[in-house]
UniProtKB/TrEMBL annotation:
Main location: cytoplasm
A Pfam family this chain is assigned to: Amidohydro_3
Principal EC category: hydrolase
Residues holding Fe(3+): 77, 79, 234, 308
Source organism (scientific name): Streptomyces scopuliridis RB72
A GO molecular function held by the record: imidazolonepropionase activity
List of residues binding Zn(2+): 77, 79, 234, 308
UniProt-listed InterPro entries: Amidohydro-rel (IPR006680), Amidohydro_3 (IPR013108), HutI (IPR005920), Metal-dep_hydrolase_composite (IPR011059), Metal_Hydrolase (IPR032466)
The name this protein goes by in its record: Imidazolonepropionase
GO cellular component: cytoplasm
PANTHER family for the chain: IMIDAZOLONEPROPIONASE (PTHR42752), IMIDAZOLONEPROPIONASE-RELATED (PTHR42752:SF1)
Domain of life, source organism: Bacteria
Length: 396
């Protein structure tokens, strides 16, 4: 990977179509599409966007060659601090065979056994992989340590690579606490939280049958909030349950998965400040029914798309892949899917400075080898991201 910093102002010109995500710009749609556009960058910020013919003079220019530019993707949900491999589990599932290995527990054992250097190298590898596909902001979580030391270690390592770090000590009840889940919740809300809070911005819980119920999830999120961590929730992935309503009630930034929703859940998301983050890589990789993005959008909810990159249920770092699935199978238009993968992810992280290309925003851009952002869904599986800038630096 090469990094290039250019002093002075730089204009990216000859952009066939530019997604700004500012509805006051361009065609007046939510993605604020400008044709024949230019973007001017100064340092790490966007300072001007508009029609190429009106661009101000700059110190440097880069010719986009009549291709499309979009904001860098904001992937607001991943699990990158892990070791080991679950190829056999996936292969068995896709071959229709029963597979009784321990799922998340398999990854927990491998992660505990790994060195700091191995875990850090893994995070760096998957972040680089995502960056090449246009992801300029990546949230990631702990959740494969499940001891005080292993969770704190995971977050310390994550923190070396990204600012968006989430404490997920409440991923599952580990085998060593299987007989006494209440004692594990006490650990997650006590000693483990104290050790982890300095490294994290967010607290998360897997609210699901077989993981943590509504009362346990409330205790975990409330304890995290008291330590300055803002809530987000793994909610309603495998079954109906209290996760979404709890997320909205506690003003969580995001309720993630949202695959099994009652009308009351949809209504709560539509009227609350909590983003509904959909993770179609998980349904793809487990052959599960898709979340209904159309239902959420029609109700007025804010929808984000994210990869859920993890070795068990969604081992993809590709936001373009998630966009293609969302358009093909979840009722989203290409415009909506691109918005959700950029501005939607920013909303799910409560960030104003990313996910849009307007003056003052961080200069995070992806140049597509295509004339339009629609090609992200129209040409699934094709590596269309051809250049990436993050904070004004060309990083790919
Ligand atoms: Zn997850």
């Amino acid at each position: 990977m090469t990094t290039t910093t250019t002093p002075g102002t730089t204009a990216l010109t000859n952009i066939a179509s530019l997604v700004t995500n500012d509805p006051s710009l361009g065609d007046g749609t939510p993605i604020g599409l400008i044709q024949d556009a230019a973007v001017v960058i100064d340092g790490d910020r966007v300072v001007w966007v508009g029609e190429s013919s009106k661009a101000p003079a700059t110190d440097n220019a880069v010719d986009a060659g009549g291709r499309a530019v979009i904001p860098g993707f904001v992937d607001s949900h991943s699990h990158l601090v892990f070791a080991g491999d679950r190829t056999q589990e996936f292969n068995a599932r896709m071959s229709g065979r029963a597979y009784s290995a321990g799922g998340i527990r398999t990854t927990v054992a491998a992660t505990r056994a790994a060195t700091d250097a191995e875990l850090s190298a893994n995070v760096a590898r998957y972040l680089a992989e995502a960056l090449r596909q246009g992801t300029t902001t990546q949230e990631t979580k702990s959740g494969y340590g499940l001891t005080v030391d292993d969770e704190a270690r995971a977050l310390r390592i994550a923190r070396e690579h990204t600012d968006e770090v989430t404490y997920l000590g409440a991923h599952i009840v580990p085998p060593d606490h299987a007989d006494d889940p209440a004692a594990y919740v006490a650990l997650v809300t006590g000693e483990m939280l104290d050790a982890c809070a300095p490294y994290a911005r967010w607290v998360d819980v897997f609210c699901e049958k077989g993981a943590f119920d509504g009362d346990q999830a409330r205790a975990i999120l409330t304890a995290g909030a008291a330590k300055g961590l803002h809530p987000r929730v793994h909610a309603n992935q495998l079954s109906y349950g209290p996760g979404v309503q709890l997320a909205v009630e506690l003003d969580a930034a995001s309720a993630d998965h949202c695959t099994h929703l009652t009308d009351a859940d949809v209504d709560a998301l539509a009227h609350g400040a909590t983003v509904a983050t959909l993770l179609p890589g998980a349904e793809f990789s487990t052959r599960a029914a898709w979340p209904d993005a159309r239902r959420l959008l029609d109700a007025g909810a804010t929808v984000a798309l994210s990869t859920d990159c993890n070795p068990g249920s969604s081992f993809t770092s590709s936001m373009p892949f998630c966009i293609a699935l969302a358009v093909r199978d979840m009722g989203m238009t290409p415009d909506e899917a691109v918005w959700s993968a950029t501005a939607g992810g920013a909303a799910a992280l409560r960030r104003q400075d990313i996910g849009r290309l307007t003056p003052g925003a961080r200069a995070d851009l992806a140049l597509l080898d295509a004339p339009s952002h629609v090609h992200l869904a129209y040409r699934p599986g094709v590596p269309l991201v051809t250049a990436v800038w993050r904070a004004g630096e060309r990083v790919h």
